[in-house]
Specification:
Keywords: Membrane, Transmembrane, Transmembrane helix. With about 300 residues, the protein is mainly α. Helices cover about 65% and strands about 0% of the residues. It has one domain.
């Protein structure tokens, strides 16, 4: 019987490999359907795109993913010295997220020509907005992030590890039933492993909303889809940095909040309220507080001996 550590390792690797391959196959298959329809139900074009996706997944798996995983698991060469960023996350973003976003942008342009043809011929327009592929890509990205964060912890029993990469600290649930007892003692129980899932989804919520805006028909069929997807992809690069790294705050300001605020204001001016005002308010508030507490608060003019400061 394999040990629990081996079972956990196999489970994590299978899930990460599925998160790498499934989004690519789904996005490429939807793109193949779109190409087939544009080419007049040409099955040759459909199977050509499908074959390309299979060849791509096979190549990146054998040439990049498997060798990288081998180096990480065996702690060979420079990989063993990496502590401030995550090679697996970087490889995933480059090999999966980037090509999926590129195909989605290409789909918007192909679909634009399809809509023009259908309108000219008087045929009903079936707008294909790729909502399922987009959701799958983002969900797979979140799953990879969760696996990387929760990897140091056990899957069963109480979590006593201090290496959980959600925060620099972790409270054990066992220290909380000792503090509170009685019939409602379960209300004070907490476990860092469950908080990983909450923190990960909250971490990606802003990016999810930005990609959702790209699915709006007015944005999807315009040139604005390019900067929206590009900025959304740039924000995914934050996953490369370890969650307890101080650099993550600066990366969030430079790669997400500041550019997201600019593009959202521009989208609201051009298309109206395609995104809730809450999100640009969040972006500007986070940006201003980062600038103030990181730079301005250290200036002599902002220093005050008042006790409440």
């Amino acid at each position: 019987m394999p040990s629990g550590k081996t079972v956990k390792l196999i489970l994590y690797e299978v899930l990460q490999f599925a998160a790498l391959t499934v989004p690519i196959f789904v996005v490429m298959e939807r793109f193949a359907i779109l190409i087939r329809d544009v080419k007049g139900q040409d099955l040759t074009a459909y199977w050509l795109v499908v074959a390309t996706s299979i060849a791509y997944v096979t190549s990146v798996t054998l040439l990049v993913w498997v060798p990288l995983k081998y180096l990480i698991l065996k702690r060979r060469t420079f990989v063993s010295e990496i502590t401030q960023w995550r090679p697996t996350a970087l490889a995933y973003i480059i090999l999966c997220t980037f090509p999926c976003f590129a195909i989605l942008i290409a789909s918007s342009k192909v679909m634009s020509s399809k809509v023009i043809v259908l309108v000219t011929e008087g045929a009903p327009v079936d707008i294909f907005l790729c909502h399922l592929p987009v959701s799958l890509v983002l969900f797979s990205l979140i799953c990879v992030d969760i696996i990387e964060r929760i990897r140091p912890c056990k899957l069963i029993g109480q979590c006593k590890s201090s290496k959980l990469l959600v925060r620099s600290y972790l409270y054990s649930s066992s220290s909380q039933p000792r503090s509170y007892s009685g019939p409602l003692g379960f209300l004070w129980r907490k476990d860092g492993r469950s908080e990983v899932f909450v923190d990960s989804f909250m971490f990606w919520l802003d990016t999810v909303e930005m990609v959702r805006v790209a699915g709006e028909p007015a944005v999807f069929f315009s040139a604005w889809v390019f900067p929206v997807y590009i900025l959304a992809f740039m924000s995914t690069l934050r996953m490369v940095i370890t969650p307890n790294n101080p650099l993550l705050s600066s990366a969030g300001f430079a790669l997400q909040d500041l550019p997201f605020f600019v593009i959202r204001v521009a989208l609201i001016v051009v298309f109206g309220y395609v995104t809730p005002v809450l999100y640009p308010l969040k972006n500007v508030l986070v940006s201003l507080t980062f600038i103030y507490f990181t730079f301005l608060a250290k200036l002599r003019i902002f220093r005050s001996p008042a006790p409440f400061c």
